[in-house]
Write a structure and sequence with these properties.
This protein has 415 residues and is of the alpha/beta class. Helices cover 33% and strands 18% of the residues. The longest helix has 17 residues.
Amino acid sequence: MKRRVVITGLGVVTPLACKVDALWKKVLDGESGIHPIKLIDTSSFKVKFGGDVYDWDPSGYITPKEVKRIDRFTQFALVAGTDAITDSGIDFSKEDAYRCGVILGSGVGGLSTMENQVERLLTKGPDRVSPMTIPKLMLNAAGGHISIRYGMKGPNYTVATACASATNAIGDALKTIQYDDADVMITGGTEAAVTPMGISAFANMKALSVRHDEPHRASRPFDLDRDGFVMSEGAGVVVLEELEHAKARGANIYAEVIGFGASGDAGHITQPDAEGTGAALAMERALRDGKLSPDEVDYINAHGTSTPLGDKAETKAVKLVFGDHAPKLSISSTKSHLGHSLGASGGIEIVLATMTLLDNTAPPTINLETPDPDCDLDYTPLTPKEREINIAMSNSFGFGGHNASVVIGTLRNGQ
């Protein structure tokens, strides 16, 4: 029998707030973290706005010496991870190090390090490339640093499935505990791709919104006037524990992780399956894994990136899975507030999905002013909606045709 797994700690870094309670309040208040980019000079760029954490200050978490030796995406993970661990109240000095691990997701890892060192290579020669280049840019650096900080010697790896990375990582961490390979797992995602290469590459693909006159209204999932996603950055990290382990140490249990599902579109390298069949399969597998029927789900934190094709495909996928129950769901895309942090998005969104369970409130999809007729479900436009929420799903779909869904809920049977 699979062991039960619960969430006992939450941590975030986002352009809107870097503490969970503050982030949740701002999301419910309909605030946006999107603005003209301040992190880099975008004067010659096609897209000049996004969700950069421009006032980033990791002091208090990371020493100035450490900051120089780790990429920004690892800094985000360390801060969000430290907050999640502190929130959980777990003391790793009292834990079996071999039963505690880290599985994180990231789409591109240390992109800024790569860009900076390539420039040094081309302008100053090979001898001037930093010896810290590889340890800084490798995708597994973030998980490695968290494990080193807390002495965790259990399963430790990084998942890279583009924008599904964090949710795939959470699914792997869930299974690691369910099948008795660990008791505690730190999981989620981190990304810091608001860089010259990141912005220009996505802009040249015509994937990004170009609503320069109103950046805070540019991310508008499921709206008829959406024109692309808004690039963002950040991290979302949660502490997962085996239920009895959490109860034995008197942990505060936020939610139970009930099921996980994944699939591949096997279609286009960037475009989603137009009929949503791959996304639907991931959702169906998550429900089956959790032994849930579709009508037990109350809320979905949608992938909802604000792209013309993606939002329409996700709507079709939800209808395929939930049938007559689909119109009864509350759905929202918190990317309307935060933009799209690529491989980190699923980590941030499982934190927000957890908050919906605690508050019995579906957060709003802001900027959803003119609903797309092809996106005709209840996407919680503009204002939050109070309702009973016992089961919530979080969706993440990535380039390459990667689909992942996770289902969480209030602790079942009160146990």
